[in-house]
Amino acid sequence: MLYQVLPSRTDVSVRKNGKPVVIIPPFVLGTNILAFLPGDNKSFVHAFANRGIPTYIRIAKNIWTTPAFQVMTGEDDVRDTAYFSEIVKKEHGKPVTLCGYCQGGFTSLCGILSGELDNLVDLLITCVSPMDGTRSPGLATFLNNLPPRFNDLAYGTKTLPNGNRVGDGKLMGWVYKLRAIDDEFPLISFYRDMVMLSADGKAKHGFNKTALAINYWLSYERTDLPLEVTKMSFRSYNIPITTEGVLPVRLFGRKLDLHRLPQKGVKWLICYGERDDLVEKETALAPRDFIDVEVSEFPKGHLAIATSWSNPKSEFALDKRFGEKNYRGPVLFQLESDPSYKGG
Question: Of the candidates 100, 136, 30, which has an alpha carbon nearest to the alpha carbon of residue 268?
Fold first, then answer.
């Protein structure tokens, strides 16, 4: 499904002729984290929409009740993106920007490299996205100490009542160390300890809305994912990008060569978290060994870009330049790539 995200600010309207962005969420982490507390200016999608950018987000249907989604392949994923991009391009008269968060950035890159999005997408933004999991220092240590029989996709799958096999989102979250997110929000762990030790299972002291919302998301928002998509991620965490710049997965029987982006004139901004323990810098920036891309380093970890820095009043706001190296936030990158943008 594709939803348009309208501005939450009453003084902002969508620029019909603006360059549109389609945001691709990660499968495991889900969609809701990208629309986190919009009333508190912490929503990633509204950071785009509140600048008048035609903003859309792709939302997956409930995998437990949608058999077609359960058996979706990487090729199906690209076809869906192409279908939606064609509609959005026709609506606004301009090629689409794909903005993928975490796993959504990797699948967006694969889709562009497949050639199926030619003439539809001309700009790519990836935020804290794993591009070569073999370069992850933390995960490499974890996998090296893991008995080989457990580093097997069979241990990350489950069979649904209808017989379809899917990637176990909760288990995959452990394997790919989503628990590291807890380190980014120590208050959440403290809250859980308070609940666990209380007699009635309820915390005795008040907590701010952000802490409670993050706790709810960590507890309930992870979901299962299609097995074929799981296989793509599994390969990217076990097989490195080749010395020629070819990804370890194929789509439509084609090699996915990073050099195709500059050949097609697709510009790319990679955003990563300075202290991201889930997708480390080495993993996110792997493509820089093969092609020129723009990079923006944000403080904090995996969720900060989607929450803390989505606030336009923050020091590292997504629609501003920041830091000693004058990095561009993804919203500003989008705005300045639009010829119709007049600034301000």
Answer: 100
Residues 178 and 184: beta-carbon distance below 8 Å: no
pLDDT greater at residue 303 or residue 70: 70
Beta strands, E only, 59-111: 96-101
- DSSP symbol at 6: P
5-48 confidence digits (pLDDT tens): 999 999 999 999 999 999 999 887 778 888 887 778 889 999 99
CB within 8 Å of 25: residues ≥ 6 apart: 31, 33, 34, 57, 58, 59, 60, 101, 102, 104
How far is residue 300's CA from residue 117's CA, in Å, rounded to a whole number? 33
By the 8 A CB rule, do 44 and 74 touch?
no
pLDDT at 223 over 90: no
Domains observed in the chain: 2-138+223-336 (3.40.50.1820)
Task: Scan for tokens 């999608």, then name that residue.
Answer: 45
Secondary structure class of 147 (helix, strand, coil): coil
> Hey, what's the torsion of the CAs at 128, 131, 136, 142, to 10 degrees?
100
Confidence label for 234 from pLDDT (cuts 50, 70 and 90): confident
Q: What is the pTM of this model?
A: 0.87
Cross-strand partners of 269: 125, 294
**Which tokens sit at 344?**
């301000």
Tell me the percentage of the chain whose pLDDT exceeds 90: 58
Which residues does residue 294 pair with via DSSP β-bridges, in sequence order? 269
CA distance 58 to 70: 17
Residue 209: band (very low, low, confident or very high) from pLDDT cuts 50, 70, 90: low
Average pLDDT on 51-78 reads 94
What is the reported pLDDT for 329? Answer: 98
Concatenated DSSP letters for 34-51? GG--GGGT--HHHHHHTT
Positive or negative torsion for Cα 195, 308, 100, 295: negative
d(CA 133, CA 238): 7
Q: How far is CA 208 from CA 12, 41, 44, 140, in A?
A: 28, 15, 20, 36
Phi–psi pair at 65, nearest 5 degrees: -120, 5
